[in-house]
Amino acid sequence: MNVEKIVTGYLEENCYVLSKNNTCLIIDPGDDWDKIKKSVGDKNVLAVLITHYHFDHVGALDALKKEYNVPVIDYKSNSNITIGNFNFKIILTPGHKEDSATYFFDDDNVMFTGDFLFKETIGRCDLDGGNVNEMVKSIEKIKKYDANVKIYPGHGESSTMGYELMHNPYLKGDYNE
């Protein structure tokens, strides 16, 4: 699976286009429809995945649905999904927002965490829909994944679960930092 990161909008949100053969999935279509459409090119878009519904992650969602007429997968979807050659699991990870979902592609050992988990930190819990207690539960759930899992967050650099377990104070249990 090829993963292309497209940085969109003034909040520099990470949109991802996942490609296999001539098909793709789009994760979190942020504010820049033209950049996303250019990245998709002539690939067949199978679906769009939403990690959560903050404006910077869904700014181009309406344009994408209009252009491609594809299903939208989010926290309300079934937990195990196969679309074309893509197989993934939806992990509910509320805390940053009540509708937060993480997408784990076991075959490729990659995870898309939205604003739940970043390199060396976590998403804010003080915005509308955030909840510190839910965040702690989500962190405990995600820590059980293999150290080699590559993490693609909603903003900033990618990481691995092993790196986060060693360097992210929240994954080490230091919730008050």
Could you please describe the fold and organization of this structure?
There is one protein chain. With 177 residues, this protein is α+β, with helices and mostly antiparallel strands. It has one domain: Ribonuclease Z/Hydroxyacylglutathione hydrolase-like (Metallo-beta-lactamase, Chain A, 4-Layer Sandwich). It contains five helices and 13 strands. The chain has helices spanning 33-40, 55-58, 61-68, 132-142, 161-167; strands at residues 2-8, 13-20, 23-27, 44-49, 72-73, 80-83, 86-92, 101-105, 110-114, 117-118, 121-122, 150-153, 159-160. The strands form three sheets. The chain has a six-stranded mixed β-sheet. Strands 1-2-3-4-5 form a five-stranded mixed β-sheet, covered by helices on one side. A two-stranded antiparallel sheet has the order 10-11. The longest helix has 11 residues, at 132-142. It is globular and about 45 Å long. The mean pLDDT is 95.
Write a brief structural summary.
This protein is α+β, with helices and mostly antiparallel strands and about 180 residues long.
